Each structure stands twice: as C-alpha cells, then as structure tokens.
Amino acid sequence: MNIDTKELDAFFKNQASSYINNTEFIPGVTPIYYSILYWDIEEYKAGINAFLNGKWTSSGENVNEFEKKFSKKFKNKFSLMVNSGSSANLILIAGLKKYYKWNDDDEIIVSPVGFPTSISVIYQNRLKPVFVDIEMDTLNFDVNKIEEKITSKTKGIFISPVLGNPPDMDKLIELSENVFCVVSFILK
Q1: Chain centroid, CA 24 distance in Å
Q2: How far apart are CA 1 and CA 128, in angstroms?
C-alpha cells in the first residue's frame, strides 16, 4: 500500500499540527526536554511510511540498515537495536552474565541515584547491586569510595551517569586496571 505524499502532507497540515512541534531547532538555543517527544513532520512521515510500506511493523528495513552501518562503523560483526535504554541495560547485563559465567549473587557496583533500570536489571539477572555513596555536586557515585566496596564477588561497575554527567573516568580506568579485566559500562 503506497500512500500519496500529498495526502500525507495534507493530513499533517490539517489533523496532526496540534501535536507536532513545528518550530525550528537551533542548537544551543532550543531547549531539549528530558522526557518529551520531539519529532518534526518529516520524522512522522518517515515513520508512517515505514509502517504502511515496510515489510515489518517494527525492526524493519530501516533498523536492519542502521544495525549494519553501526556494526561496520565500530568494527563489530553484529549489532542489535532495541526499543530503549532500559531494554539495552537488560540485554547487556544478561549477556555479560552468561558470557562471563557470573553466578547468582555476584556483585555489580552501581550508583543509588540514576535510572531505575540500572538497578532493576541487576536484580532481574539475580545479581546483587552494591551501592556507592554519591558526590552531591555531580550526583554520580563517588569513585574514591569504590575500592572499599570491591569484594571477591564483584564482577563489574555499572555506569549510568545522571543526566549525562560522567564520573571521573580516568580514575575509574585507573582503578579497573588493578581490579578488572575490561572497562566499559560494565567491568570484568
């Protein structure tokens, strides 16, 4: 089923204008809200076109093309796009647990302040979150207090920076060289 572009344009002009942001985005000037949808008319059209004319209602041709380009750019054999950061966290922790053969109740160091799915996915995978106190000026865990939380059951540090403010990564890398095998969002 192909929908005429003129029909789609008319629909958006007449019906959808009340919920589409038609203002021009100006970097550094236009505010970006944390939890509000911002799509322009062209993105809505592309989504409807993919839905009506694509072979799949989700993870269709566009996602497949993106995964291939992403894999190539980062020199990976495969990539998998998911619907949200929460789902990505769940797949990440489950995959690492299986790959590294972590046991139930192994420990992951995590901040008590951040996205709920940084903690819930640890529980969902039967691992134990170990909380490190935060720095009040950044709301990230205090990297100077991590070392005292490390035990023989510690398998990683889950980094999920509050509002994109990263912790002291140099310090984390330095710490991980003495304790962990790999530095990423998860260590070891």
Answers
A1: 26
A2: 50
Which residues pair with residue 154 across a beta bridge? 107
Contact 126, 104 (CB under 8 A): yes
Pick the CATH number of 85-179 from 3.40.220.10, 3.90.190.20, 3.40.50.720, 3.40.640.10: 3.40.640.10
CA distance 146 to 111: 10
How many angstroms separate the Cα of 29 from the Cα of each of 22, 24, 37?
15, 10, 18
Sheet holding 128-131, edge to edge: 128-131, 107-110, 154-158
Can you read off the two tokens belonging to residue 140? 């990230």
Q: How much is the pLDDT for 26? A: 84
CA distance 185 to 171: 14
This prediction's pTM: 0.69
